[in-house]
User: Fold 3949_t:CDS:1 from Funneliformis mosseae.
Amino acid sequence: MKFLKFIKKKNLLILVTIVIFYIIYTISIRLSFESNGIEIQRDFQSNNNGDPDEKFITYLPHSGFNNQRISMENALFMAYFLNRSLILPPIVFLDGLNHLYSEKTDKLYSKLIQLNHDSNNFTSCKDKRCKQVKFTLYPWDELIDMSWIRERIKITYRSDFNLTSLLTSLNITNEQEFLFLKDEFSYHYKFYDDSNSTTSLDKFHVRINLSDLKKDHHNKRLIHFGSLFSSSRIVKELPESRIFWKNLTRELVPNNQILVEITRDIINELGGQGNFIGSHIRLGDSFFQVNGNKTLDKITQRIINDYIKNSVPNHPNDKLFTLCKDDLSKPNTVPLVIFLATDKDRSDPRIRSFLEIFPCTFTQSDFIYSLEPLKRVINPLGNMNMQKFFAPFVDLLVVSHGVKFYGTEKSTFSSYAQRLHDIHQEDNFVDFIS
Ligand SMILES: Nc1nc2c(ncn2[C@@H]2O[C@H](COP(=O)(O)OP(=O)(O)O)[C@@H](O)[C@H]2O)c(=O)[nH]1
Ligand SMILES: [Mg+2]
Assistant:
């Protein structure tokens, strides 16, 4: 009897322990999915058991971060205009390869499918030469404030690039149930919100009126776009479209808490918001490498002109000034505190010539101490340390708080910095960081 009682007691104890462990486990999983304050439905494939009549759109990301941001913003506009939910792919961060891109959608898919959560490496081959590339897939909500858009559009998250499992999860069993607008070349489709628009196709090849797309394919469960990159991909001429777009571009700002803390710290070191100039000089690859000297000449001239004509306000603090005081006594130097964002380091000869004219120029590497918290940023999808991938965002956020911003032509990084700068200026540099 006693023995039986003991067994019962023991079973009860085991049961209670299991229940406690289960509760702790569930809470910890929830918390890890709520790291930026929002509960995110991470895995689209295993969670789509909702409305069978719900209609979706999706697209394929490619190239650098800002190319992906522009595609994502265009996709949000499409979802709004077509009144569909968006299946949002993650941000693709690469280490060891500048661009993952193919102009043909099928080929791009065959590259992207290599990126899955089982690994953080894939093999990239070009002209029969192959190398290992590190990657991580990162959720947009961890970086950017999506709260405004979430109130207007339903977003579900895709966590890999497997087309078959995407279609299965949507119960799509034959080709008639979805529309796949595959690209055969770069800039294939251009979309128009107003069917009467006379805006030309320019570099694009095929015109699609969004109202026809909406009407003719209203019963399709999914409209799958290829690339949605390019700020001229969608012509927005209807007043409602313009208002929506203006709000969207104003609301989608980086709000990652660690990035915000670091930015605040560096801005303080620089003498506070509005007391320094921000510049982005892109020299690292392709077009920007070839045009590097021109970019530097243009930016230098623009800063000098503004400095002479408009006497740009600049109040360097004493600590910073002691660092550059001696160099400022040399001829042809300009006493402005500049934060320089660049994809090259200070030893690059072109950067060195800029520093000779503007000796009070500082870069991210001058604020090593402020950058410490970057070491703590972990991707909740896959646990990859994000330090390397996040460094450009520190540059982006700091330059956008300069009293003036001078960027590189044709760089989408620069155009985002300019947009953020204009937002801060409109708000009179009231701390975005509060
Ligand atoms: N740290 C840092 N990285 C940069 C800077 N400018 C460009 N990069 C890197 O180069 C990439 C540029 O690609 P993208 O964002 O598509 O902009 P774009 O190529 O200039 O139009 C960024 O994502 C960064 O990884 C910079 O000022 N600082
Ligand atoms: Mg790019």
Summary: The chain has 15 helices and 15 strands.
